[in-house]
Design a protein that fits this description.
Layout (H helix, E strand, L loop, with lengths): L1 E2 L9 E2 L43 H17 L9 H10 L5 H5 L4 H10 L11 H22 L4 H53 L5
Antiparallel strand pairs: 1-2
Length: about 210
């Protein structure tokens, strides 16, 4: 991220923003136990499976994106804690605090979206970046329709959510492009390995002597 250090005339500075991969170096007043061992990331925004030994795929990114949206709407992480163990325990046993969203009058389509992206079970989340984008677009259309029906009086607050969803669609398109490229790279590598194996088999067959 680029910043001018708080003033318009200051020189531009480059800052690394922790979005799950930058390892925090905590000072005396920080939270030194939030990043340790083999875990690398931001625990308050990490999916439950990132804390265990289970497989991590696109649905883990989707959970983190949902946690980021939750934070943008409430100012708090969905499940916070002072240690990885505490956060993991709250994810596993505490219900999603939807009352925070209700208190801030977050529209129901967004609440429903957050319930799915922040599901503890990966199987209950959108299965892919493409499916997430479809859910975001559906949510955006519903809110745009409500703005038109409700009239000018309620447009100010509702438009904030539409703009926020548009931003998330942009992030979702990045996820989609990344996972598509990753899948194509994996398929290409698999084809290459298959071709090499077939060539090795054919070379072996050419040296085999016919039986007498």
């Amino acid at each position: 991220m680029l910043t001018r250090g708080g003033t318009d005339t200051a020189e531009l500075q480059v800052k690394i923003i922790d979005f799950g991969l930058a390892k925090a170096i905590a000072d005396a007043g920080g939270e030194p136990d939030l990043t340790h061992g083999q875990f690398v990331g931001t625990p308050n925004f990490a999916s439950p499976e990132q804390f265990g030994s289970g497989p991590v795929d696109a649905r883990s990114d989707i959970y983190s994106l949902g946690a980021t949206l939750w934070f943008a709407l409430t100012g708090l992480a969905p499940h916070s804690g002072t240690s990885i163990e505490e956060i993991r325990d709250r994810q596993a046993h505490d219900h999603l605090p939807v009352a925070r969203l209700v208190a801030r009058k977050v529209p129901e389509p967004i609440v429903k979206l957050l319930r799915s992206t922040l599901a503890v079970d990966p199987g209950k989340r959108p299965a892919s970046a493409r499916e997430l984008m479809e859910a975001l677009e559906s949510c955006r259309r519903k809110l745009s329709h409500r703005i038109g029906v409700a009239g000018r009086r309620s447009r100010g607050g509702a438009w904030i959510y539409v703009v926020l969803l548009a931003a998330l669609l942009s992030i979702g398109s990045f996820f989609l492009a990344r996972h598509t490229a990753s899948r194509k790279q994996t398929e290409s590598a698999a084809k290459q390995r298959g071709a090499e194996l077939l060539a090795a088999v054919n070379r072996g067959a050419s040296f085999r002597q016919p039986e007498s």
